[in-house]
């Protein structure tokens, strides 16, 4: 009797080095290409030096499981790359991965360029709406520094807006570019937020991904395990990158939020050229597209992004015909 063929050994994924980004995966205009330059970051933000460690590859990095280390690291990145001298957020609020947030803005800029004769629109005449600006105010900071855009940032959390206000007021010149406004009705996204005479070239959103706090904590444990950080002897934060309830979960989870956004966007379609939102779970894309078609969206675009091994995407939609979109730029 012949022996059964020998099965190949299962492939294993190497431990990801968070300090090494793949430049071919980030948008070409993204400032965060290649490996982080820790000496340069420490030179502009000396406090970072206390948090630099040697990773399993023998390269300088930080402990991405330490929320305080991530906050200090982000502060150094924003100061070195964008000239943001003051950036403080309260403990336990979402501390976002900056390169990925920048990619969303750059790809959104490419989308706007399609209606502007292929040229990325720049300057204060371009205004964007950030749904859920959060305590970190990250999209307005990057979007203004890279493209000179103006922003309206909305949030339902007064504490988050207070933090964002502190960042804006702590950096000269941002007050003219970034306006912050509270959405007082948690049942709505656009309704009751916009003034009748306001117009925006685009909206963007990082929606709550989970349906409950338990689901958010479970997701964080999976991420720590994938990063090789799930050490039973070590107490890790419950939520990676921090995050408050409205930042991370809502009733019905991400798809419920996206469907509500699709339905409400129809009612303010005349005020926004392109709506957009990150979609964390690829399994939600089909349901979201159906909701957008039901709302009457004339065009729906899905844009894939990647940072290292992390895959993400955003969906953009518009209620305007091509000639109407071109006319938006005058």
UniProtKB/TrEMBL annotation:
Residues 18-27 have a biased composition (Basic and acidic residues). This is Ribosomal RNA large subunit methyltransferase F. GO terms for cellular component: cytoplasm. PANTHER family: RNA N6-ADENOSINE-METHYLTRANSFERASE METTL16, SAM-DEPENDENT METHYLTRANSFERASE. Residues 1-33 are annotated as: Disordered. It is found in: Cytoplasm. It comes from Pseudomonas panipatensis. Keywords: Cytoplasm, Methyltransferase, rRNA processing, S-adenosyl-L-methionine, Transferase. The lineage of its organism: Bacteria, Pseudomonadati, Pseudomonadota, Gammaproteobacteria, Pseudomonadales. InterPro entries: METTL16/RlmF, rRNA_lsu_MeTfrase_F, SAM-dependent_MTases_sf.
